[in-house]
Amino acid sequence: MPYPEKQLEPEKGLLEWFGAELRHHRKLSGLSQDELGQRVYTSGSKIGKIEKAQRGCSVELAETLDRELKTGGVLTRAWRLVESQADERLSEADNDRILGQNVDADPVVRDMLDSHFSTARGESVDRRRFLAAGVGFAAGAVLADGTSTVEDPQLDLMAQMDQITTACIRMGSRRRIGRADLTRLNAVHDLYQSLDYQYGGGLVHQSMNRVADAAAVLLDSTHPDQLRNELYTTVANLRLLAGWTAFDMCDHWTGQRHFAAAERLAATTENMSLAVFVHYCQARQFQHLRHNRDAVEVLRLASDRVGTGATAGTQAVLNATIATSFAALGDREAAVQALRHADDDFGRIDASQEPPWIRWIDRAELDAQFGRVYRDFARQDRRFADEAAEWTRKAIDGFDEGMQRSSVLNQVGLCSAWFLAGEPDTALEVGAEIVAGDGQVLSQRVRERVANVSRDAGLCAGRSDVDDFIAMITPR
Predict the structure, then answer these.
(1) Closest listed residue to residue 17, CA positions, set 134, 105, 109, 96
(2) How many angstroms separate the Cα of 101 from the Cα of each of 4, 126, 168, 199, 412?
């Protein structure tokens, strides 16, 4: 009789988390430990020990496991976190002091942790355990210099973020930084980005602004020459996220300040893929402000910069985004052509060849852009309204729990689409859901989009319930 498998506890630490991810993807592939070991030229016993956190894993083996299990790079990315914890002793200020955090104490993060990621390949096993490890790692790693302590294990999420932000600012005073410091900053970036996707820029905007400005100071620090490009890229990513969260709160001046800085850093390191991502974010801001001609020019610049080296994912994003500006400008032919190109590009995506910023792209994002385009068509010709509603509903169905802001934005779009279709009863049902969920996503951009529904609802004005809804969503 075989022994039962050891129950894994990924919340205990990064090595345990890595092991749980490996077991999860091995089982998805229907392989035993021995069968997987044979495929990656190692022993089944070694696979078992890695899963149980009894031994580590080399980056070469992590990469081989990713390829064999088709995880989308999960294990290689997880390896960076595991390795950085072991590498902390190399940083002059490190003392291996990892602080425990109770992320369940705050109801906001508790709700988020209670939801689960999809079990599709490339996704984490369990949001609760992943973010518990993420917050604990980010706080512990950044605070590892011992200059800040956590006295109360019941600190809520905002207090933890304050601790992390303060520690990042203190890093700016260091005369020399190493790879472990960059790994910590990347962990902070990934954690804050996850919170931004789920709860909107309002949760992290102020913290990201401070962290990004503090990280910029590190450019003047002493660091090994081989880390220069990695340092510039890390700071660029932090400033880009700070710009995006500022844009999400409609702090457009701060957003452009960080976007400009991120673009300069990307150009300095000749990282054209990152520069394209910056231009994409700038274009999204221009679109929100209804400066669609500027958005088109920025997206054309992005396409020129990446040139023939553009991946299928990059082309899909650029084409889908420029289509929405063409539609808003009334150029239906150009919008449809761009959407067709985006659809073709999406079908050619090879995740292993895409830059990191493309990894959030999925069919739901593309469907959302189709919905935006057809809503603009419907504002010119209401015969397109049903198609706009269909595309937008498909997008909502495709978003997972970690993309709550995107889901809400598309609910708003669906409400508009039904008003454009002359279906006020259905529109009001969707509108009631939006109003009931007000405050779950902390985003001024969402609030402005909700208020803008009144222009489409006005097509059905004259009914008392529609008039009441317009009054409810119109800012006073």
Answers:
(1) 134
(2) 31, 18, 17, 20, 36
Does the predicted TM-score (pTM) go above 0.90? no
The tokens describing 459, both together, are 């097509």
> Of the residues 213, 239, 263, which one is the last residue of a structural domain?
263
- Please check whether residues 78 and 100 belong to one and the same domain: no
The whole-angstrom distance between residue 107's C-alpha and the CA centroid of its chain comes to 21
d(CA 170, CA 226): 23
Taking the C-alpha atoms of residue 371 and residue 377, their distance in angstroms, rounded to an integer, is 10
Find the domain containing 34 and state its range: 1-85
Task: Give the DSSP H or E segment for 15.
Answer: helix 14-28
Residue spans of alpha helices (H) in 249-311: 252-268, 272-288, 292-306
Q: Which of 263, 296, 324 is the last residue of a domain?
A: 263
Average pLDDT across each block of 10 residues of the chain; the chain has 476 residues. List them in order. Answer: 56 77 88 88 84 81 89 81 54 34 39 37 39 45 42 51 75 78 83 84 88 88 87 94 95 93 93 93 95 96 90 94 96 96 92 80 88 96 95 90 85 96 95 85 90 94 93 86
Residue 392 lies in a domain: no
The reply to whether 124 and 95 lie within a common domain is yes
State how far the Cα of 465 lies from the Cα of 263, in Å rounded to an integer. Answer: 47
Spatial contact of 276 and 302, defined as CB atoms under 8 Å apart: yes
What is each CA distance from 292 to 47, 89, 254, 320, 322, in whole angstroms? 53, 50, 20, 14, 9
Q: Is residue 131 part of a domain?
A: yes
336: burial class by Cβ within 10 Å (0-12, 13-18, 19+)? middle
Amino acid at 148: S
Q: Is residue 316 part of a domain?
A: no
Q: What is the pLDDT of residue 124?
A: 38
Q: Please indicate, yes or no, if residue 161 is contained in any of the structural domains.
A: yes
